[in-house]
Amino acid sequence: MSLAILAGCANQPRKTADADLSSNHLLRNSYLLSTQSDPLGAWLDNKRSLAIDYADAETFGASPAPKSMVSTAMKFLGVKYRYGGDSPGEGFDCSGLVAYAAEKSLGLKLPRQAREQARQGISVNRDELRRGDLVFFNTLGHRFSHVGIYLGDHKFLHAPRTGASIRVESMDVAYWRKRYNGARRLQVPPETARR
């Protein structure tokens, strides 16, 4: 009996599944962002939607350096959060992920804490964000206590908290919108940038 059920699932037309995915994508993402009850599904959805972002990176005003930092950081989607973590093997916290991606992709050695990273580069208005900018939030009752990497289309990549994994979230969700503190654009000297 279970064999027949599996065969029925396997024979479902792929085109229908893809159509269902695209028609329900926004609704499902909204639900997942608020509940995170399906982390693997969220991770897969994020990989699919970000494939579009990679193809259209120029739409977001990306230059090679920030694009490289985003590409480096995206390799760690799904890696577990670890307080104080700063490497793929042990896991990352928010500032560890940003510092690691900046050093590996741009050759920049950033400070280790989010509040110190908030002093790097130049300040950027929210309506002028570009792919690769650092976005900061107040999550612990003080400014610049959390950092992520802006991806474009109001999305950012970050290491959220203990028990969670590196993921992409929308800055338009109420939680992040009301905790947003600002953004910085890293300045990469041409001789320092790794491409």
Which key features would you list for this structure?
single chain, 195 residues, alpha+beta, endopeptidase fold (from Nostoc punctiforme), six-stranded antiparallel sheet, two-stranded antiparallel ribbon, 7 helices, 42% helix, 16% strand, globular, disordered N terminus
Structural category: alpha+beta
Shape: globular
Annotated CATH topology: endopeptidase fold (from Nostoc punctiforme)
The second-level CATH architecture is Alpha-Beta Complex
Q: C-alpha Rg, in Å? A: 18 Å
Discrete helix count: 7
CATH class: Alpha Beta
Proportion in β-strands: 15-25%
Question: How many structurally independent domains?
Answer: 1
Mean pLDDT score: 77
Can you tell me the CATH superfamily?
A: endopeptidase domain like (from Nostoc punctiforme)
What is the helical fraction, as a range of percent? 40-55%
End-to-end C-alpha gap: 54 Å
Q: Which sequence of SSEs, written as H and E, runs from N to C?
A: HHHHEEHHEEEEEHE
Protein name: C40 family peptidase
Keywords: Hydrolase, Protease, Thiol protease
Domain NlpC/P60: 63-187
Pfam families: NLPC_P60 (PF00877)
